[in-house]
Amino acid sequence: MIIKMLQEQLEAANAVNFQLNMTVSNLNATVSELRATVKGMGQTISNLEALLKDRDASLSKAKSQMRGLSKMVENKSERQKASPAEAKTEEERQAERERKAAERKARGNNGAKRDMHFEMKTVEKDIYPDGAADGQKAVFDRVRDVVRYIMIPPQFIKEVLHIHTIKAGDRLVSARAPQTPIQNSSFDGSFIAGIAQLRYLYSMPVERIVNYFSENGFNLDKQTAHGLLKKTAFLFENLHRAMRNAVKEDNYICADETYHKVLVNTDENAGKGIRKGYIWVILAAHLGLTYFFYDNGSRSEEVILKELGDYSGTIQSDGLKAYKKVEATSGGKVRRLACLQHCKRDFLDMKGNPDADRILELCNDIYGNERKHKIGENGWTAEDNLKWRQEYAPQILEDLKAALLKVQAQTDKYPPKSQMQGAANYFLNEWDGIEAIPTAGDYAWDNNQIERINRYVSLSRKNSLFFGSHAGAERGCVFYSLACSCRLHRINFFEYLSDLLNRMAEMPNGTPVEAYRNLLPDKWTKKEQSK
Prior knowledge:
By secondary structure, this protein is of the alpha/beta class. It is built from 18 helices and 7 strands. Strands 5-4-3-6-7 form a 5-stranded mixed beta sheet, sandwiched between helices. Helix 9 (about 320-330) links the parallel strand 6 (about 315) and strand 7. Helix 4 packs across helix 18 and helix 10 (about 340-350) runs antiparallel to helix 11. It is elongated, with a radius of gyration of 37 Å.
């Protein structure tokens, strides 16, 4: 009976164990299902996160486009409006009207505000009434002047030089033909200068230049035009090196980079493709010289570090990391200044926000005070400007930094990745460079001058599809360096290039780079033509 009872208990235990095993199996199956469900939910969450990121990027892009369109529609200038003039008395208004009337009378030309173009070649003609006899002209002759402006399209002159050989005693002496800038070429320096001016100063593609020449009576092959520019750039290599050396002699330079599309060889099917190539530019602020350079289109920090590795002085730039590294690796030889316009530009997109408006107001206060005086006008010197800056700048900068820190602290109102926080962080990261600007009287508050210079490359980028190669981009840098330097010195680029080409044709091979220094725009004087 005991055995039977134990058997029954064992069978009951086995049944319970079987049921437990079944329950465990069911639980394992349920766990597996739950794990699969969780994995699926994780994948769904990842997909949702990716969609949210894409949506945020799309929203950010759309907002940026909307801001751009709003600027185009509003077409508002950032320039500060002049404060309204104080009310004038009736006597002052009458005196102002009399002064303006006297100016109109002195100007003539029916009182119109027109430029009389005294710098132009003037041709004078006498016009008498039809049928007037000489006796009538002598009796009464009142003259009034009428001006007409006439445009003559570009003229191409074929100059045929008859080179004579004469007998002098027992010898035959032959005259020497004038040298051309490019060996075995019939093109004078003025012809090449005309192509370069249209291509690099007025941003016309070579194909359009060739068509323009054809319309005005000279048929020029496109490849010939490219060849002339290529050989001229080679001729200017030492001049470009002289420009590089001269720019780095200035103790205050500005640096920036821009891009242009370049046609390059690709590995796939040995074909060609278009890529974005970066052009760097350095401006010597005191000398008024620009140096463009190109390194296979690279924007790597190594390019600017190699170029400015031996520089000693002050450099002004935007917040690109490469420029900061120039200062950091200089061993104290380089001091970097920031650009106020780059710091404030994101706040311009947030006008109407009280915090953004306050920061913009303080930035504009700096410009407003700066415009009250200008170095070189009314005897105002850099030393005077430094004293003036030390008077007005400290309080404005203190208030500006406080406004930026206030924005940075409001993380509940402006999340870390918001546009406002990004703008404030960028400004504060550049703060040391901003505070360094008023330590001298001739430092600019922004990098606008070099930004304006880069517009010549931007115009070319819009008008031309691309540079045909890396070598073409390098040639562009040679011409842009000279063209923009001429603009800064108000020199006619065509006249400069014509004189330079014809003069360099007479320079012997092996002329050292230093000899080209006096040919750069800041020291150039036009060579007198022999009669």
